[in-house]
Amino acid sequence: MFSGAIYNFSVKRVSSSMRATGTKLARPEWAVRIEKLRDKLHLSQTEFAGKLDVSAMAVSRWERGINEPPANVYLALGKLCGYDGCWFFWERAGITKNDVRRALNEH
Asked: pTM of the entire structure?
Protein backbone atom coordinates (compact mmCIF):
# COMPACT_ATOMS: atom_id res chain seq x y z
CA MET A 1 0.00 0.00 0.00
CA PHE A 2 2.48 2.72 1.15
CA SER A 3 5.57 0.54 0.58
CA GLY A 4 6.98 1.26 4.02
CA ALA A 5 6.80 5.05 3.81
CA ILE A 6 6.68 6.74 7.18
CA TYR A 7 5.02 10.11 7.72
CA ASN A 8 5.70 12.23 10.77
CA PHE A 9 2.22 13.23 11.96
CA SER A 10 3.62 15.77 14.45
CA VAL A 11 4.50 18.08 11.54
CA LYS A 12 1.48 19.93 10.23
CA ARG A 13 1.83 20.36 6.46
CA VAL A 14 -0.15 21.99 3.69
CA SER A 15 -1.55 19.29 1.43
CA SER A 16 0.74 18.60 -1.53
CA SER A 17 -2.34 18.18 -3.71
CA MET A 18 -3.29 21.81 -3.02
CA ARG A 19 0.19 22.99 -4.01
CA ALA A 20 0.25 20.80 -7.11
CA THR A 21 -2.84 22.46 -8.57
CA GLY A 22 -0.96 25.73 -8.95
CA THR A 23 -3.58 27.52 -6.86
CA LYS A 24 -1.93 30.20 -4.79
CA LEU A 25 -3.05 29.85 -1.20
CA ALA A 26 -3.07 32.72 1.26
CA ARG A 27 -0.54 32.25 4.02
CA PRO A 28 -2.03 31.45 7.42
CA GLU A 29 -2.10 34.30 9.96
CA TRP A 30 0.51 32.54 12.11
CA ALA A 31 2.94 32.49 9.16
CA VAL A 32 2.49 36.21 8.55
CA ARG A 33 2.93 37.04 12.24
CA ILE A 34 6.10 34.97 12.54
CA GLU A 35 7.66 36.81 9.61
CA LYS A 36 6.53 40.20 10.96
CA LEU A 37 8.06 39.42 14.36
CA ARG A 38 11.36 38.42 12.77
CA ASP A 39 11.37 41.61 10.70
CA LYS A 40 10.51 43.71 13.76
CA LEU A 41 13.50 42.20 15.59
CA HIS A 42 15.72 42.87 12.54
CA LEU A 43 16.92 39.25 12.45
CA SER A 44 17.79 36.96 9.56
CA GLN A 45 16.06 33.60 9.44
CA THR A 46 19.30 32.04 10.71
CA GLU A 47 19.57 34.46 13.66
CA PHE A 48 15.89 34.02 14.48
CA ALA A 49 16.28 30.24 14.32
CA GLY A 50 19.16 30.44 16.79
CA LYS A 51 16.98 32.28 19.31
CA LEU A 52 14.32 29.57 18.97
CA ASP A 53 16.79 26.65 18.92
CA VAL A 54 15.54 25.42 15.53
CA SER A 55 16.95 25.33 12.01
CA ALA A 56 16.75 28.23 9.55
CA MET A 57 14.85 25.85 7.25
CA ALA A 58 12.16 25.43 9.93
CA VAL A 59 11.73 29.22 10.12
CA SER A 60 11.51 29.41 6.33
CA ARG A 61 8.82 26.72 6.24
CA TRP A 62 6.83 28.46 8.98
CA GLU A 63 6.98 31.81 7.22
CA ARG A 64 5.82 30.24 3.96
CA GLY A 65 2.97 28.46 5.78
CA ILE A 66 4.22 24.98 4.87
CA ASN A 67 4.73 23.73 8.43
CA GLU A 68 3.22 25.09 11.62
CA PRO A 69 5.51 25.48 14.64
CA PRO A 70 5.03 23.19 17.65
CA ALA A 71 3.62 24.53 20.93
CA ASN A 72 7.02 25.03 22.57
CA VAL A 73 8.06 27.34 19.73
CA TYR A 74 4.82 29.31 20.01
CA LEU A 75 5.63 29.87 23.68
CA ALA A 76 9.13 31.11 22.79
CA LEU A 77 7.69 33.37 20.07
CA GLY A 78 5.35 34.91 22.64
CA LYS A 79 8.31 35.64 24.91
CA LEU A 80 10.25 37.24 22.05
CA CYS A 81 7.20 39.30 21.14
CA GLY A 82 6.83 40.93 24.51
CA TYR A 83 3.48 42.19 25.69
CA ASP A 84 2.41 43.38 22.24
CA GLY A 85 1.23 40.29 20.43
CA CYS A 86 2.34 37.61 22.89
CA TRP A 87 -1.18 36.31 23.36
CA PHE A 88 -1.61 35.44 19.69
CA PHE A 89 1.33 33.02 19.91
CA TRP A 90 0.49 31.72 23.39
CA GLU A 91 -3.09 30.99 22.39
CA ARG A 92 -1.77 29.05 19.38
CA ALA A 93 0.08 26.93 21.97
CA GLY A 94 -3.21 26.34 23.80
CA ILE A 95 -2.74 28.79 26.69
CA THR A 96 -5.56 31.16 27.58
CA LYS A 97 -5.56 34.28 29.72
CA ASN A 98 -7.74 32.41 32.22
CA ASP A 99 -5.07 29.69 32.49
CA VAL A 100 -2.51 32.34 33.41
CA ARG A 101 -4.83 34.01 35.91
CA ARG A 102 -5.52 30.66 37.60
CA ALA A 103 -1.80 29.85 37.75
CA LEU A 104 -0.97 33.26 39.25
CA ASN A 105 -3.75 32.96 41.85
CA GLU A 106 -2.40 29.59 43.00
CA HIS A 107 0.91 31.10 44.08
From this structure: 0.74
